[in-house]
Design goal:
alpha/beta; 9 helices; elongated; single chain; six-stranded mixed sheet; Purple Acid Phosphatase, chain A, domain 2; 17 strands; 28% helix
């Protein structure tokens, strides 16, 4: 039986350019702290193999502080075999950061686009993999039967894209994984994990997701996958769990502010929403304001953002739409009122595009019914 950790996409030394200087440095340090926590997890659980499925680093420039931290961390778990498959951000090219590092003996790095393996006979395990050698890899390295000895535990670690068959980042299909015959495929490149998937051949595969979210396209808890794998007479026993690591959690949420008559009212609604959801300093929130407001109310997103200090960071997006003369139109017995009544379900639709179309239709219709020139509308 082996104990395994699967991680990927740490993107150490990411610039965090969307944050101010102070918070950017906080996030860079927090990613380093999460790496330290990963090493401590491997030590405390006596992990046999750690698989790093690419993009350990965010780019070719890596600080001495980060390099020293990586080296010290790997040296502190000498009984753990660390296998790295470089990705498109940290490819194993001529100027690879891996060639500049003095890596400990327990670290194994793939350096070719062709699939190969490292053999660990003491664990009765082989770890297959390949490396990006540049910023793209347009072929699938998994185009044939690969596993050579089905009696062993056969693992794959690699950076690849299962979401698009024409991806520039090592397109891999589920059929490729079925045919290859791995017991577990540890994948990187997709930053949001959707759990461990079982193949019809009896093996498993997963994206671990990134260790720390870096933006609002990487929402929710982030972490690693741990697993216990055993094989007896060719019969696989596999169990896994997701271990969260995030210092911060990025969230994207929507808030309906229909009926608010001032920015103060909107601010009160936002503060109540944050309180109800129990968001705090750990959270980075992108809040999308939606709903129907009187045309005279202009939403000041900067003002709203500056009034709220309870979150790590807050981004407010105004997606509200004007509700023209709502009160008067509701009571209007003429064709204008009937026109508004017909459009109202669309104006309040959950579909933003539909709301925009209905709002535009209302604007044009009211002008036309009032005898105005619709050609003068922008």
């Amino acid at each position: 039986m082996i104990r395994m950790i699967h991680t990927a996409d740490l993107h150490l030394d990411s610039p965090f350019a969307m944050l101010d200087l102070q918070k950017s440095e906080i996030r860079r340090q927090e990613i380093r702290d999460s790496f330290d926590a990963l090493i401590k997890l491997a030590y405390s659980t006596r992990t046999d193999i750690m698989l790093i499925a690419g993009d350990l680093f965010d780019g070719a420039f890596v600080t001495h502080e980060t390099l020293n931290m990586i080296t010290r961390g790997f040296e502190s778990i000498p009984d753990c075999r660390i296998v790295i498959a470089p990705g498109n951000h940290d490819p194993a090219g001529d100027n690879s950061v891996y060639k500049k590092m003095c890596l400990p003996e327990n670290v194994y790095v793939f350096d070719s686009e062709d699939i190969s393996y490292f053999d660990f006979p003491e664990l009765d395990t082989r770890v297959y993999g390949y490396a990006f050698t540049s910023s793209s890899l347009e072929k699938s390295p998994l185009c044939t039967d690969i596993v050579k000895d089905a009696s062993k535990i056969n693992l794959l670690v690699c950076h690849g894209d299962t979401l698009s068959p024409i991806s520039r980042y090592a397109p891999i299909t589920e059929s490729d994984l079925e045919r290859a015959g791995f017991d577990y495929a540890a994948l990187g490149h997709v930053h949001n994990s959707d759990g461990v998937h079982e193949l019809s051949c009896g093996g498993f595969y997963a994206y671990s997701g990134c260790l720390e979210g870096r933006g609002f396209d990487e929402t929710g808890e982030k972490g690693v996958i741990t697993a216990r794998i055993d094989k007896d007479n060719g019969k696989l026993a596999f169990s896994s769990k997701f271990v969260p690591f995030s210092k911060r959690v990025y969230m994207t949420r929507s808030l309906d502010v229909t009926g608010c008559e001032s920015n103060t009212a909107i601010l009160e609604k936002i503060n109540q929403f944050i309180k109800n959801e129990e968001y705090g300093e750990r959270h980075a929130l992108k809040l999308v304001l939606e709903g129907l407001l009187t045309p005279s109310l202009r939403v000041f997103t900067q003002y709203l953002r500056e009034q709220i200090n309870s979150l790590f960071t807050l981004r407010i997006v105004d997606n509200t739409l004007p509700l023209y003369e709502c009160v008067h139109l509701e009571a209007d017995p003429s064709i204008k009122g009937a026109f508004f009544d017909k459009l109202r379900p669309l104006l309040e639709s959950d579909d933003r595009e539909m709301r925009e179309i209905a709002s535009l239709a209302l604007r044009y219709g009211l002008v036309a019914l009032s005898g105005g020139e619709t050609s003068e509308l922008n």
